[in-house]
Amino acid sequence: MIEVRFHGRGGQGAVTSAELMAQAAIAEGKYAQAFPSFGPERRGAPLQAFLRISDEQIRLREKIYEPDVVVVLDPSLLATGNVNAGLKPDGVLVVNSAKNVEAVRGECQFNGRTAIVDASKIAEEELGVPITNTTMLGALLKAAGHVDLKAIEKPLAARFGRIAEKNLRALKRAYEETVIEE
Amino acid sequence: MAQRVGLECSLAVSEAVKLANADVIAAYPITPQTHIVEHLSELVASGELDAEFVPVESEHSAMSACVGSSAAGARTFTSSSSQGLALMHEILYIASALRLPIVMVVANRALSGPISIWNDHGDIMSERDINWVQFFAENGQEVLDLTITAFKIAEDHRVTLPVIVNMDGFILTHVIEPIEMPEQNEVDAYLPPFVPAQKLDPAKPISMGMVGVPEVYTEARKACVDALEKSYPFIVEHWNDFAAQFGRHYKPIECYKTDDAEALFVTMGSLSETAMTTVDELRAAGQKVGLVHIRLWRPFPTDDFLAAIGESKPLMVLDRALSPGCNAGPVATELRALLYAKGKTHYVANFVAGLGGRDVTRADFKSMMAKTLSAAKSGAPMPYEMVGVKE
Amino acid sequence: MSKAAEAIKNVEKISPKNMPLVEPLSRGHRACQGCGEVLALRQVLKAVGKQVIACSATGCMEIISSPYPQTAWEVPWIHVAFENVAAVASGVEAGRKALIRKGRIQDDNTKVMAFAGDGATADIGLQALSGAMERGHDFVYVCLDNEAYMNTGIQRSSSTPYGAMTTTSPPGAKSKGQSTWKKNMPLIAAAHGIPYVATASPAFHLDLMNKARKAAAVPGPAYLHIYSPCPTGWRCGPDTAIEASRLVVQTRVFPLFEVIDGRYVLTRDITKPKPVADYLKSQRRFAHLKDEDIEFIQKRVDEEWERLLNLVKATNPEAK
Amino acid sequence: MADEGMVSWKSLALGCAMVEPGTSKRFNTGDWRSRRRPVTDREKCIKCGLCYILCPDMAFSPDPNAEGYYNWDGYYCKGCGICVKECPKDAISWQEEKEEDKYGPACGA
């Protein structure tokens, strides 16, 4: 089982990220769970979303305290100091940032495997809006590789309809541009 | 062919109501029930479900409109939570007294105060005695399946009672997970159109909701509780039929690795799944524990429960609601009374956990079981414990 | 012509010559001797006939018509609770609408009707009523206004008139009885923009019955507010209900009017009103009022009448 | 405990409904009347029907044998006196009645 925690801000689509990935995994015949952090947060507030993917039925109804992967949708969240809380030492931190790995690691005090992509720039260029949820899925897929890139296409189309194409382009570009530092 | 989809459990409820071809939905939005009614209004708006969606101005009116609609002979659904369920309280008793087969999904949530939108069972435990059939679902598949069976059970003329399907707020309502979506023709084969036992019809006028003078009130109540008590075999029958057709078998009480267990968790609702994983982990560490989970809460399946717990094993009963001023949570109180009446001597430890959205983890379950075993060893009665209270 | 006016045009008028003999409310009910409320209820039901489903709020009319095993209802009837009759009626209407559309029952032109007292309408049930009117259900709501909670023992409601003595608005050294003016329910109903609102009084039984027929004929929500004397609660003789319901109109205390798709129509102009004192002095609930109190009430009645006339003028611009 | 008027819970209709309409017709409200009853003088009666339409207890019904007139039913009349008071020709008046003939023609049974 792989456990993923998404960090974003209300309105940035962290919950959608987790949902799309769960749907992709389920479409592949796997088991998955996606759920938001059930808070009173509103647009702009930092929030979390959770994702579990497994080959077997998942019988757990607790939050994710020791994730295998942490995905950070908004670079400004790095400085909040808790994005890598509980992240397994052999886990991976997937970050939206224009900075290099030293700067990122310095900001959040995590020295493990780190995947970096400038998702804000890609989203701005491909979608015309700085919403990084689908873009960051590309980075997640590259870094964790738990779901086939093709499996994401259908849930993406179901969710975004006309603009699914653009989102897929952003996602694929992020997949290509993500740099992984061991 | 049934399709396996990734779906939010709330939407699975709405899809179940669509598959059941409900005629009327009267509902008022309340967190965490909202996604259910939002999706239902979408289904009605798109024409996928041919029903009247009555966007009432309160939960009190939601249940009142459901009573009217069901009395008119329409298959009727609603959904609520917490304060909304409490606002319905008065009418819940009347719905069952009038023997109206309304189906309601309750997205369980704590009652104020302080106000909390998060999950526990405080809302439904306050509605224990409303004379409705009550189920607790453990996952999205179950909530979909049980909602479909709820219509069949409610409308069976041998039952004719309203049914509540409980699902944990957020923990289930807002989770996306894999769900087998039955085909419409399969559901149609299982669930025939609603034929009301009686209805408001100018061609055959009846009076419903008459004054229960002292000469009849006791008899009216007797008839009503009798219907609930006798609904058990029909619930089992319809769940068996469901299993035969859809391959998923639901039982009033479920056992998980109980056969050789030396102590048992007793749970209700979605935490039963966390408890199962805990059982696996404890067993891997050499501790023979098992789990008994309660799916049918009303009518309480006494014989099934007694058979499930076996002889003399310590029970760790998890309550997700308080019964202030009593010496235990509502589930433990009930189970102790039942065991006493049957001459059983099981040690019952009681923990109240997961109030107002507090996470209940495997670590919590393990700690509760450790305390249960040590208390049972000493034999001294143990007061109920509120888990994780910060002193 | 507006939809409501169109529907009303085709209503067969009741006159002394064609009084309907049907009694959807049966004999043997247990209302007090001389109850004006059950009389109003009887007149409404006679006018609309048996093709109805009746819903009652808890209250006098429910209690006196349904002590098990004696029901006074010859039509399908449901009582659920006190504050929710409009919601119950909206459920019945929605249920039938769905079943008719799905071809599971025949459209037999059944009218869903809700009956409630003033407490169940103006106080505890106002929210449910407002919701049902706003949603536009096809039903008739009848408020049988006896101006207090009579069923529980004559406690004041928001529909109790100024100065009236009730068991919770007793006159005393620091009280003149009810200290607030009667809530104007018909105007509150009209403010919802529903197709038909009317007031009626059982002393003017033809007017009342014809308004009931119109209310039933209109598609969408209709609201009838009927003055319903309670001799027991008003401390009057059992033969006074009709006298009171005549005087209340003749003194302009309770004007008879309709609001048809927003247009106010005075259905009985009172050109030479009797003094309000005549009305107040006929009921012991007002016995403690002094001349100055009566004057105060008279002034308010005059103002309210003016206000109503202004509403008539404002909504009938073509009339002179 | 006396069980007059009581029925077995097993014999109640579903939801304690009353499946027969208008059963109150069997209920005698005539014995609410005290000492006197309204009597119509058909010489004075102008067949206006006000006694019929203004009676809260439906004690008056059209006389099948004399068109325009109304019969009074002592089984239901509670004796409020609205008919006496409202009759425009004073054709209805009170008449003392004895207990034994109180219920008049009991057509309600």
How would you sum up this structure in a few lines?
Chain D: Its cofactor is [4Fe-4S] cluster. Chain D: This is Pyruvate ferredoxin/flavodoxin oxidoreductase, delta subunit. The complex is a heterotetramer of chains A (about 180), B (about 400), C (about 325) and D (about 110). Chain C has helices at about 5-10, 35-50, 60-65, 85-100, 120-125, 125-135, 185-190, 205-215, 240-250, 275-280, 290-315; strands at about 50-55, 75-80, 110-115, 140-145, 170, 175, 195-200, 220-225, 255-260, 265.
Structure in words:
The complex is a heterotetramer of chains A (182), B (391), C (320) and D (109). Chain A has a single domain (2-181), classed as Pyruvate-ferredoxin oxidoreductase, PFOR, domain III (Pyruvate-ferredoxin Oxidoreductase, domain 3). Helix content of chain A is 36%, strand content 22%. Chain A has helices at residues 14-27, 101-108, 119-127, 133-144, 153-160, 164-177, and strands at residues 2-9, 31-36, 46-54, 69-72, 92-96, 113-117, 179-181. The mean pLDDT of chain A is 92. In chain C, helix 2 crosses helix 8 (205-217) and helix 4 runs parallel beside helix 6. Chain C contains 11 helices and 10 strands. An 8-stranded mixed sheet of chain C has the order 2-1-3-4-8-7-9-10, with helices on both faces. In chain C, strands 5-6 form a two-stranded antiparallel sheet. Chain D has a domain at 29-101: Alpha-Beta Plaits, CATH 3.30.70. In chain D, the strands form 2 sheets. In chain D, strands 1-4 form a two-stranded antiparallel ribbon. In chain D, strands 2-3 form a two-stranded antiparallel ribbon. The longest helix of chain D is centred in the C-terminal third of the chain and has 5 residues, at 82-86. Chain D is elongated. The model of chain D has no long low-confidence stretch (mean pLDDT 91). Chain A binds chain B through residues 18-19, 22-23, 25-27, 29, 31-36, 38, 40, 58-63, 65, 155, and chain B through 4-6, 8, 32, 117-119, 168, 170-172, 174-178, 270-271, 273-274, 276-277, 357, 359-362.
